[in-house]
Write a structure and sequence with these properties.
Blueprint: H1 6-19, H2 31-69, H3 75-84, H4 91-100, H5 102-113
Helix pairs in contact: 1-2, 2-4, 4-5
Length: 114
């Protein structure tokens, strides 16, 4: 009697298809294409987990800079003055304040420039 690997193969394929669920065209249901797509998506995910941190920092700086420009001030000066006065508020919180609570943000800016 011949022994096959059908059950193990089916399980392996299903595990892969679970990873590529939602992909377009053959990448979701053709094993050879799905294998390549899963590898590529894994690489992209790994790379973009690192990139996300940079992107958010850029966004926060842009938001803070925009709020400061409305007051006629520059971000680089503001960051320097914050460091001089030892005001420790991270960029994420400053950007949230600039967007949602401008009075508090303005108070921090005045404190830094005072």
């Amino acid at each position: 009697m011949r022994v096959t690997n059908a059950v193990a193969r089916k399980a392996r394929h299903n595990k892969l298809f679970k990873l590529v669920k939602g992909f377009k065209w053959g990448r979701k249901n053709v094993y050879r294409l799905a294998l390549n797509a899963a590898a590529k998506s894994g690489q992209n995910s790994y790379r973009d987990r690192k990139r996300k941190k940079r992107t958010f920092r850029q966004l926060w700086i842009i938001r803070i800079s925009a709020a400061l420009r409305a007051q006629g001030k520059r971000y680089s000066e503001f960051a320097f003055k914050m460091a001089q006065k030892q005001i420790i508020v991270n960029r994420k919180m400053l950007s949230e304040l600039a967007v949602k609570d401008s009075t508090t943000f303005n108070a921090i800016v005045e404190k830094a420039y005072a």
